[in-house]
Amino acid sequence: MFRLVSGGEPLTGSGRDRSDSSLRLVNSRSHCAGRVEVLRNQLWGTVCDDSWDLQDAGVVCRQLGCGTALSAPRGARFGKGSDHIWLDNVNCTGTEVALSDCSARPWGVNNCTHREDASVVCSEVAQLRLVNSPSRCAGRVEVLHNQLWGTVCDDSWDLQDAGVVCRQLGCGTALSAPGGAHFGQGSDRIWLDDVNCTGTEGALSDCRARPWGDNNCNHREDAGVVCSEVAQLQLVNGPSRCAGRVEVLHNQQWGTVCDDSWDLQDAGVICRQLGCGTALSAPGGARFGRGSDRIWLDNVNCKGTEVALSNCRARPWGENDCTHGEDAGVACSGNLHPSRHCGWCRDRAGKLSGETQLSCLSQC
Question: List the disulfide bonds (predicted).
């Protein structure tokens, strides 16, 4: 029975009882992912995505025995329904046993279209993980098949494929899709090869690929992914996302890095973390302009092998003896759009050091 409440009060009457109501996820290969549909008066209908969030999705996943919620896609991610829109403004606290215990508008009352149909992706559908890195949102891609974890070959592996993985795991967007066993070699089966996602799929299992276990690869070709949720790092005020002032996110606030002891090894970690190739230079002295917020890091000292800047040694967060005139910068080799990059370099001729200018123009 759906006992939906409005304004925190139980709604009685109107035929609301659990005997004629149910719940399902449709339009995907798994019963643990898809468009949310509820049954009312023997008619299935959708849920509007107004205020739909991970807490609401979590209740659905738990109710269906599908684990936890990885994401709560909106905007008819799993296609538009065609019948009634039964629910709107669902508001779960996250502790409810069933969606029926959550607050919502009365049955059928909504201001939505099917373009706003709500969806859910639960953990039990994933059969997917990223391993061998400090974060669950970066690492070697592994998939579960026949109760055995195995890797994905990097043949044709690209940012679209990585994007599907990141979205499926609730890790944001894909920053890079490294191949060549960037996150180490697996040791079990190689399950997938020639993966070819359009980028709109709800799960990696929805992408085209060779049959399970059919490949011409070895583990030196294991595919990896770095998603945006792991980064908490950006390069700003430069010619591309791969060059600029270094900024890091801490306590929900962006801040800069001081250039004390800043060098090419530190810059190299950043370039690799952002999927931007190798470091060309590590300019200090606010070469890419001065920041205006906190100075989060000082005396950064990377060995050069770290997966993320957060793994490098440094003074405690926010502890420094710097000004924004010492903000650190980075110029990486990858993803520098030639026309924008070269124009930016030439415009700053005479303002960059000889080394940085040479490195800059060498990419043109």
Answer: 48-112, 61-122, 92-102, 153-217, 166-227, 197-207, 258-322, 271-332, 302-312
| pLDDT one-digit tens code per residue, 109-123 | 999 999 999 999 887
Structure tokens at 332: 């990486």
Closest CA to 156 of 88, 207, 104: 207
β-bridge partners, 131:
140
By residue count, the chain amounts to: 364
| Domains located in the chain, CATH noted | 5-124 (3.10.250.10), 127-228 (3.10.250.10), 232-361 (3.10.250.10)
Q: Show the DSSP H helices in the chain as ranges.
A: 54-63, 123-126, 159-168, 228-231, 264-273, 338-347, 354-361
- Name the strand (E) or helix (H) holding 174: strand 174-176
Q: Give the 3-state secondary structure of residue 39.
A: strand
> Contact, 158 vs 177, CB < 8 A?
yes
Of 132, 156, 124, 142, give the one whose Cα is nearest residue 191. 142
Model pLDDT for residues 13-50, shown as the tens digit of each residue: 333 333 224 899 998 867 788 899 998 888 999 999 99
